[in-house]
């Protein structure tokens, strides 16, 4: 197969565009991994794709000469006095034999445990409580809620569980008590 000069140049340009796209993807993934490490996320073991052969060499793109650019400022260093995260409750971590559980299953398990903790707090207090009081007590047990307003997030969860047949009853704006046994 003999290519003309124009065909060879066109093919070479197409390969260079592919290489540039791959290098951008690599840079994006490296930034993503670095951000994950900085935020302290769980490190997942690298798993090869199912279609990758173990004996196939991994192609390494040749570096392309880049035009001189102004130096990029380094990202700011994380603050030295970062607030400590509360410990992850034991029920939120998969135990042996449950490593394959999806995030959805673990999130539902966490949500059920959160409601159980709220019920225990309400039973212990023996009185109706506001969502902010409940959040303060369950935070001591290691529970956390996402978002900028955790009280609102907890209030939404409790409101959804305070319907007919639910374990809670809503007595006022963000005030909850356990549902009576005869109501359930």
Report the sheet-strand fraction: 5-15%
CATH secondary-structure class of the domain at 107-178 = Mainly Alpha
Q: Ends: how far apart? A: 79 Å
Order of helices and strands: HHEHHEE
Low-confidence stretches: 66-72, 82-88
Q: Which class best fits the helix and strand makeup?
A: mainly alpha
What is the CATH fold-level name of the domain at 107-178?
Arc Repressor Mutant, subunit A
Highlighted features:
6% strand; mainly alpha; 184 residues; transcription; 3 strands; rod-shaped; HTH HARE-type domain-containing protein; Asxl_HARE-HTH; coiled coil; Arc Repressor Mutant, subunit A; 3-stranded antiparallel β-sheet
Task: Describe the protein in words.
This protein is mainly alpha-helical. The protein has a domain of 72 residues: Arc Repressor Mutant, subunit A (Orthogonal Bundle). The chain is built from four helices and three strands. The protein has a three-stranded antiparallel β-sheet with strand order 1-3-2. About 8% of the residues have low confidence.
In short:
The protein has 184 residues and is mainly alpha-helical.
């Amino acid at each position: 197969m003999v290519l003309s000069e124009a065909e060879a140049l066109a093919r070479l340009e197409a390969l260079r565009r592919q290489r540039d796209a791959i290098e951008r993807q690599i840079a994006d993934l490296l930034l993503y991994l670095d951000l994950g490490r900085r935020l302290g996320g769980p490190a997942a073991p690298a798993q090869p794709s199912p279609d990758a052969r173990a004996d196939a060499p991994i192609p390494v793109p040749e570096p392309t000469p880049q035009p001189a650019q102004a130096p990029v400022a380094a990202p700011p260093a994380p603050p030295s006095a970062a607030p400590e995260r509360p410990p992850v409750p034991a029920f939120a971590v998969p135990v042996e034999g449950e490593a394959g559980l999806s995030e959805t299953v673990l999130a539902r398990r966490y949500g059920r445990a959160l409601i159980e903790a709220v019920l225990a707090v309400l039973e212990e207090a023996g009185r109706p409580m506001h969502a902010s009081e409940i959040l303060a007590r369950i935070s001591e047990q290691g529970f956390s809620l996402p978002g900028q307003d955790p009280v609102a997030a907890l209030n939404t969860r409790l409101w959804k569980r305070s319907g007919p047949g639910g374990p809670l009853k809503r007595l006022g704006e963000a005030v909850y008590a356990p549902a009576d046994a005869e109501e359930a």
